Amino acid sequence: MISDFIKKHHCTKICKALHLPKLQEIPWTTCDKEDTPFNPKITFERPEVQEQDLELISIVRQGSLALNTAAQSRLK
What we know:
mainly alpha
């Protein structure tokens, strides 16, 4: 399907203006499912949350709440 698109594609002014390279098919090979990072082993250890991580999460949440409050007050 992608190779058909590549064969039929004609670069337009937009492609050239964006300095896009010519389309080409990228060679790839399949691998065993066990070798991929998308198949994590169940025996992994859970990461520990550090105190500084909790502080950062708290700051981000406060900023998010402040932005939401400001946005809601503008809508009223």
